[in-house]
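Support request from a user on the community tier.

User writes: "When I paste my structure tokens into the form, the page sometimes reloads and wipes my input. The last time it worked, I copied everything first. Here is what I submitted, just in case something in the input itself triggers the reload:"
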């Protein structure tokens, strides 16, 4: 299984080399830092900023696909309506104000410019909307075919379902403490010059074929990539227990809301804004602009569309999961839960102690010092 989410331009780790948390390597000006094995605590916020976590319960966590977001539909609808307003109203008014004279009255110029704007809006807005819908459809089809990587904390194992030429293959169960994880700081070239790029990846060698199973994502920044890993690690070590803890830092999901975005997301956001306005945290101008943008984005429609898309995915995904994976996912009696290794427990405690003493040091330096103290070798 290799799910590459626009990471083709980033350097790839040397997967055939033994690694441990804290190791790093450089490739053509880029840097790869390994966070596991062993999965030591990084001290970063436990946040799924990428919204790649699908579901969480007391036994397992699904990572790798995520649900549709309200913001994605807001961007599509707001961008389309915004372009229409610019072409039909704002630009014609500005052009008419700059070009009118006695020979060319304002209203006459405005009528001509509005007519041109309507034509531009029809073709430009229509093209933009169709392109955006095609992107959404492509992403939706990808989500439909993905079986997320599942992390089972009772068994302390990770389940990959490889994708072959004939569809999904038999699931592969990986020891949690043997899983490899890394973050990437890379430089990519574009028509505008060099660009800094960041990524996050998971991987493990298939025990029978030797083929590497990988899952990779582009991220907006390195701290966000590390936080994504920390959210997974914290779940596996029973430090967090709900999706709300790692995916909803702004409190936009109520206790009775479903674990995905939708109409409730917009209602909670408006309630939050009104409370901040009453408490004097934001002014009336901020609130007015916020509501104007909300109107341009067609109010509740993005929430309805996100829910509609999510419901379609929820009907499809469970049908893809192999029976062996479903059996492996069933809860175990507490006395059968797998404990963390002695080495991981000892090293994690030492990493936590050093981070509290020296919070500004990088994680790779702290990991290296811990390994040196323990006299461990790669």
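"...and here is what came back when it finally went through:"
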């Amino acid at each position: 299984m290799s799910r590459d989410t626009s990471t083709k331009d980033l350097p790839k780790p040397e997967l055939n080399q033994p690694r441990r948390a804290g190791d790093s390597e450089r490739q053509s000006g880029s840097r790869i830092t390994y966070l596991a094995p062993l999965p030591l605590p990084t001290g970063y916020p436990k946040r799924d900023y990428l919204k790649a976590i699908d579901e969480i319960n007391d036994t397992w966590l699904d990572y790798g696909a995520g649900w549709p977001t309200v913001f994605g539909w807001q961007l599509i609808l707001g961008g389309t309506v915004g372009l229409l307003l610019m072409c039909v109203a704002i630009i014609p008014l500005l052009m008419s104000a700059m070009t009118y004279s006695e020979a060319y009255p304002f209203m006459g110029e405005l009528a001509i410019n509005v007519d041109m704007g309507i034509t531009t809006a029809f073709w430009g807005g229509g093209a933009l909307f169709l392109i955006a819908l095609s992107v959404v459809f492509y992403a939706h089809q990808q989500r439909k075919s993905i079986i997320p990587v599942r992390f089972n904390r009772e068994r302390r194992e990770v389940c990959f379902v490889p994708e072959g030429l004939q569809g999904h293959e038999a699931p592969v169960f990986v020891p949690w403490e043997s899983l490899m994880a890394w973050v990437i700081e890379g430089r990519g070239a574009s028509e505008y010059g060099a660009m800094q790029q960041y990524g996050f990846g998971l991987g493990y060698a298939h025990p029978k074929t030797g083929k590497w199973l990988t899952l990779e994502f582009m991220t907006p920044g390195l701290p966000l990539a590390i936080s994504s890993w920390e959210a997974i690690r914290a779940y596996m070590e029973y430090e967090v227990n709900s999706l709300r803890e790692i995916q909803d830092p702004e409190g936009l999901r109520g206790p009775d809301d479903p674990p995905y975005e939708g109409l409730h997301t917009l209602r909670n956001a408006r309630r939050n804004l009104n409370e901040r306005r009453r408490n004097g945290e934001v002014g009336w101008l901020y609130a007015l602009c916020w509501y104007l943008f909300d109107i341009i984005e067609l109010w509740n429609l993005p929430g309805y569309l996100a829910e509609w898309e999510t419901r379609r995915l929820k009907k499809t995904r469970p049908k893809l999961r192999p029976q062996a994976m479903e059996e492996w996912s069933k809860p175990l009696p507490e006395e059968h839960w797998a404990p963390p290794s002695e080495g991981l427990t000892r090293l994690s405690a030492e990493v936590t102690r050093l981070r509290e003493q020296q919070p500004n040091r990088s994680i790779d330096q702290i990991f290296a010092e811990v390994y040196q103290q323990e006299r461990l070798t790669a």
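Agent notes: The reload is a front-end session timeout and is unrelated to the input. The two ends are 26 Å apart (CA to CA). The first helix runs from residue 70 to 99. Escalated to web team.
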